[in-house]
Automatic annotation (TrEMBL):
This is DNA-binding transcriptional MerR regulator. It comes from Kribbella kalugense. It comes from the Bacteria. PANTHER family: HTH MERR-TYPE DOMAIN-CONTAINING PROTEIN (PTHR30204:SF93), REDOX-CYCLING DRUG-SENSING TRANSCRIPTIONAL ACTIVATOR SOXR (PTHR30204). Keywords: DNA-binding. Residues 1-70 form the HTH merR-type domain. The keyword Calcium does not apply. The keyword Lipoprotein does not apply. InterPro entries: DNA-bd_dom_put_sf, MerR-type_HTH_dom, MerR_fam. GO terms for molecular function: DNA binding; DNA-binding transcription factor activity.
């Protein structure tokens, strides 16, 4: 008969661990003898070795207790745990690869096609300020609406191939520092309204974002400049007057 210290030492665990196994119902706790000590039989060594082996293999203590009452399920349970571990390893490796890319400065928040598009905007005359804002907007769109983000992106890139529409985008960029009362904003808004109705008719193509995200996108643009906030108001009024269905989108 063994004391708890002897049992723990023979199996290679601490007495605290043995007590945890008692508390979890994994190892029966013997009655105290006449001297007030708990004495463990040889079978306790066998049971403790089994528990330790399963625990060291990564089997949760709750599962060990279940398997103790249904040993015939041990093989299938271990196979499932092995499959779960394989999945966890893959996720950890994926996380490690992303961390290494981040550390190397080689991580993209946007699809490669969108990054190439943004990289080409300086050549079209857009300011770095405008490009940075567009990047943030596209990050929001692709994060919240991956199902429609490509449709919006293709619509914008197609617009930029049209010289007249490209000039409107450039004019919006250049309007950033204007006084909100500058009359040129009204003229620019009228041109954008006319171009939008001419291009889309009464309604823009593709699906709409939910109202919260749509307003978040537009508020991001408006917050960057009082002039752009005024331009947005003028455009909205003009589109509504023209019977156009408003849908806020990136760019």
């Amino acid at each position: 008969m063994l004391t708890i210290g002897q049992l723990a030492r023979y199996v290679g665990v601490s007495t605290k661990t043995v007590r945890v196994y008692h508390a979890k119902g994994l190892l029966p706790e013997p009655e105290r003898d006449s001297s007030g000590y708990r004495r463990y039989p040889a079978q306790a060594v066998v049971e403790l070795v089994k528990i330790r082996m399963l625990a060291d293999a990564g089997v949760p203590l709750a599962r060990i207790r279940e398997l103790a009452s249904a040993p015939e399920q041990l093989d299938s349970a271990l196979q499932q745990l092995d499959a779960d571990l394989t999945t966890r390893i893959k996720l950890l490796r994926d996380t490690q690869r992303r961390l290494r890319k981040l550390a190397a400065g080689d991580i993209r928040y946007l699809p490669e096609e969108v990054e190439r598009h943004l990289d080409g905007l300086p050549g079209l005359g857009f300011t770095q300020r405008w490009i940075a804002m567009e990047r943030d907007l596209w990050i929001i769109v692709y994060a919240t609406h991956p199902d429609i983000a490509d449709t919006w992106f293709q619509d914008q890139t197609q617009a930029l191939t049209n010289p007249e529409l490209r000039q409107l985008y450039l004019a919006c960029d250049q309007a950033h520092d204007l006084d909100p009362a500058d009359p040129s904003l009204t003229e620019l808004a009228d041109r954008i309204v006319a171009a939008s109705i001419h291009r889309y008719g009464a309604e823009p193509p593709g699906q709409a974002a939910d109202a919260t995200i749509a307003e978040l996108l537009q508020s991001t643009v408006n917050a960057s400049s009082p002039a752009l906030r005024q331009l947005d108001s003028l455009i909205r009024n003009g589109l509504e007057a023209g019977g156009f269905t408003l849908r806020t989108g990136a760019g």
